[in-house]
Amino acid sequence: MVRTLVGSQILSGVGMACGIAVGALLAEDLSGTEALAGVGTTAQVLGTALLTIPVARATAARGRRVGLRSGLAVAFVGAALVLLAAVLRSFPLFVVGMFLFGGGTTANNQTRYAAADLAAPVHRGRDLSVVVWATTIGSVVGPNLVGPGKALARTLGLPELAGTFLFSLVGFVLAWVVVDRLLRPDPLITARALDAADREDARRAVEPDVVVDPASGGVADVPNHDGSMRRGLAVVRRNPRALQAMLVMALGHLVMVSVMVMTPIHMQHGHAELEVIGFVISVHILGMFALSPLVGAAVDRWGAPSVAMTGGVVLTLASLLASRSQAGWSGLLLVALFLLGVGWSCTLVSGSTLLTSVVATDERPATQGLADVLMGLAGAVGGVAAGVVVGSLGYSVLASGSAVVGVVVLVVGASRVRSAVTVG
Fold first, then answer.
1. Residues 5 and 183 sit within 8 Å (Cβ to Cβ)
2. Closest alpha carbon to 251 in 79, 415, 75
3. What is the mean pLDDT of residues 249-261?
4. DSSP per-residue codes, 62-125
5. How far, in Å, CA of 47 to CA of 50, rounded?
6. Are 8 and 178 in contact, with CB atoms under 8 Å apart?
7. Which end is more exposed in the chain, N or C (fewer Cβ atoms within 10 Å of the end residue's Cβ)?
8. Are 344 and 252 in contact (CB under 8 A)?
């Protein structure tokens, strides 16, 4: 199962990273104004958030495989619409395409939870982080396909910035095939069956003569497979640790998106070449995913709150370094973007592991879906605000404000809360 999830992450990572590398530049080109440069990435982030809702419901009802396939299929349609928008010079169509393109990130986000479904509690952080790490390969390769994408686009008579989205189409199709054919048995459905068997064994140990309802599959209490956001909110209201996990992920994502989305524009102002911009974004994505197994091991050894606090410190440092970088290419900006990715990895892995650990198996799709919705909305707000701030006050002010949010992540991670329900 883990090998299958790793394979799908590599392929879908290529698809997503290609679009991230040129999304802001294509938005500026089609809209004709820098003020709207962040709208494309914001639409993608917003799409990631809102598309999580139907994907979570599908996952709860029919398992991980159905949820992941639906997210990847929507992303394929989005990439196709972005290509069409570039040809037609239609900014509104581009925004719609980027919104649907966010389905790829929705699928990627849900994949990490699939890795945790059957993991032993003492290795949950490790297993989850290995799948997150797999995105490194595709995500680092993706931005470096900007150059070949330009050449391919010229050959096919397409706008240069749209060429990389051709690689996105291929990546999403191959990831869909891997999930459809190889993710068997379904990890969430299997985890539910194991939990049901454990409950039945425990009941019979206490009440050996109990008569169970055959219609429930041999288990007296029928599980609730509701994956709605309403159920997720109900879980969070009675589980403070679940709320803590969600806040760590959402705030970490807010910082990362705010700085990352406007970095290509900041570099372009300094006349950096498109290939150089792609290289910096690839190093940023390397920071996001390459060290995740170490982050997961740290979570298993020292606990999620400690790693979340570390993430807050790293995000603050990265933002401060970015605020002092000059426009265009600089070593300082490269270091800042790498650290920005590392800090985000700390908040994602620690928050995801904590959330999975403190909710019951049947509650996972709803609460995990809600967590990703909040992450996406935080990123969307950050993307919109980033464009406005850079357009009026500059990149330095944006990065300085992000450092303040990094401190908030540190405070949330340090909070001492007790959960009403602890699982595993």
1. yes
2. 415
3. 94
4. H-HHHHHHHHHHHHHHHHHHHHHHHHHT-HHHHHHHHHHHTHHHHHHHHHHHHHHTT--GGGHH
5. 5
6. yes
7. C
8. yes
Report the pLDDT value the prediction gives residue 421, as an integer from 0 to 100: 43
Q: Is 13 in a helix, a strand, or coil?
A: helix
Cα–Cα distance measured from residue 31 to residue 42, given in angstroms and rounded to the nearest whole number: 14
The encoded tokens of residue 104 equal 């790829």
DSSP state of 328: S
pLDDT tens, residue by residue, 231-241: 999 999 999 99
Residue 419, sorted as left (phi over 0), alpha (psi -120 to 50) or beta, turns out to be: beta
Q: Which of 272, 14, 259 is nearest to 149 (CA)?
A: 14
- Return the half-sphere exposure (C-beta side, CA atoms, 13 A cut-off) of residue 379: 28
Question: Which parts of 102-239 fold into alpha helices (H)?
Answer: 103-116, 124-141, 146-156, 164-182, 187-206, 229-238
Q: How far, in Å, CA of 12 to CA of 76, rounded?
A: 10
Compute CA 218 distance to the chain's CA centroid, rounded to the nearest angstrom.
37
> Could you tell me the end-to-end alpha-carbon distance of the chain, in angstroms, rounded to an integer?
20
DSSP 398-424: HHHHHHHHHHHHHHHHH-----S----
Check residues 328 and 306 and name the one with the higher pLDDT: 306
Please report the DSSP string for 240-287 in residue order.
HHHHHHHHHHHHHHHHHHHHHHHHHHHHHHTT--HHHHHHHHHHHHHH
pTM value is 0.80
| CA–CA separation, 397 and 377 (whole Å) | 22
Question: pLDDT category, 422, cuts 50, 70, 90?
Answer: very low
Side chain identity, residue 208: P
Question: Do 175 and 12 contact (CB within 8 A), yes or no?
Answer: yes
Residue 43 scores a pLDDT above 90: no
Give the Cα-Cα-Cα angle 176, 182, 186 (nearest 5 degrees).
Answer: 95
Crossing angle between the packed helical segments 64-88 and 39-62, to the nearest 10 degrees:
150
* R_g of the chain computed on alpha carbons: 21
User: Could you tell me if 368 and 113 are in contact, meaning their C-beta atoms sit under 8 angstroms apart?
Assistant: yes
Question: CB count, 10 Å around CB of 382?
Answer: 30
